[in-house]
Design goal:
13 helices; globular; binds benzoyl coenzyme A
């Protein structure tokens, strides 16, 4: 039913030992910055970690539509509504490219979605926070999409071809998302004192969760070392987090807003901003599914899946009919 070829027989037995010659050839190709393609030989652990990361990424895009979707009917003007609608549709598209990329590794989209709905698969912690006022839509675009771009630009050169190619288009669209968020906040800080206060309130609530999007600190990131070695990740969680802080501080200054971190200060020696301690207990609690609106998000996803059953059934019936016609011809 889906567009991507899925050949379950291609995936070798996960328990089988890797052939050292094949492994050495694979490592050499990765070290030479060649793309690995779906039909190429790859170690089981590479296939597993990529399926994990790409499917989590896809789930994040799809769940990420929910906090913004809440505001579609309350957008303050036709222009803002059209922009928000376009952004949410882009995110649906990103989810679909990414599910397709993950399917090329031998796991079906249905299996990935089932894992999400059963609570076995992760998605970004950021989407377990509520959108309380209109300025939150600006803060999501500016900070959440801004963090996503920082993380995803290096993924355009990730070693797995289908993931890298999906990221090229996704990054272009994320840039528009980030710009629209910043533009929205710029309009609000130039508005009434109440509007500026709403923007500050949104920044206060979204800043720390945005820093958590980059994942645990490097010394507590179990997947990083291998993913960097296999050039799946090109930069570490802390390196990307630092780049994001450095890029965002001047943008906040231009908005006339204050980042909610009393320890934030320029470090001349490092040529970077120092920032305060991140609440990792909160991060891990949200990863465990204890985020403020985690249950609501999963309820909404399961309902969308159940409500869409008739579309899947109709598409499958149509496909079966076409196949029967082809066989009869
Ligand atoms: N949230 O060893 P680590 C978007 C998990 S959506 C939840 O550092 P890794 C957008 C991690 O999975 C953009 N879980 O892992 C959409 C691992 O657990 P498992 C989403 C997290 O993979 C709509 C464990 O913690 N972007 O842009 O090396 C509207 C240890 O972590 C998080 C992506 O998905 C988290 N924040 O590095 C607006 C980017 N962080 O899997 C915007 C692609 C960590 O071992 N993903 N964990 O059970 C990545 O780049 C990497 O997977 C991460 C984590 C940097 C996120």
């Amino acid at each position: 039913m889906y567009t991507t070829e899925l050949d379950k027989n291609r995936a070798p037995d996960p328990a089988a030992p890797e052939d050292p010659a094949l492994l050495a050839a694979f490592e050499a190709r990765v070290a030479a910055d060649e793309f690995i393609e779906p039909k190429d030989w790859m170690p089981q652990a590479y296939r597993r970690t990529l399926t994990r990361q790409i499917s989590q990424h896809a789930h994040s895009e799809i769940v990420g539509m929910l906090p913004e979707g809440n505001w579609l009917t309350r957008a303050p003007s036709l222009k803002r509504k059209a922009i928000l609608l376009a952004k949410i549709q882009d995110e649906g598209g990103h989810g679909l490219y990414l599910y397709c990329a993950a399917e090329t590794l031998g796991t079906s989209r249905e299996e990935m979605i089932e894992a999400l709905h059963a609570g076995r698969a992760k998605y970004s912690t950021i989407f377990n926070y509520p959108t309380l006022n209109w300025a939150d839509i600006g803060a999501i675009g500016w900070l959440v999409d801004g963090a996503a771009i920082m993380n995803q630009v290096p993924l355009q050169r990730t070693s797995y071809g289908p993931y890298a190619r999906a990221m090229v288009r996704i990054c272009k669209e994320e840039s528009f998302h980030q710009r629209q968020g910043y533009d929205l906040l710029l309009a609000m800080v130039r508005g009434t004192p109440e509007q500026k206060a709403m923007a500050q309130d949104a920044l206060n609530r979204w800043w720390w969760p945005s820093l958590m999007m980059f994942g645990p600190p490097d010394d507590n990131s179990p997947n990083s070392a291998q993913s960097i070695r296999w050039r799946i990740k090109r930069e570490t969680n802390d390196e990307l987090r630092q780049k994001f802080v450095d890029a965002t501080v001047p943008q906040a200054q231009l908005l006339g807003l204050t980042l909610p971190d009393p320890d934030l200060k320029w470090n001349e020696a490092r040529g970077s901003y120092d920032y305060g301690a991140i609440n990792w207990d909160e991060f891990y609690a949200v990863v465990r599914g204890e985020g403020p609106v985690a249950r609501e998000r999963m309820r909404a996803r399961r309902k969308a899946w159940d409500d869409g059953a008739w579309v899947r059934e109709a598409a499958a019936a149509y496909e079966a009919k076409q196949a029967a016609n082809r066989a009869a011809a």
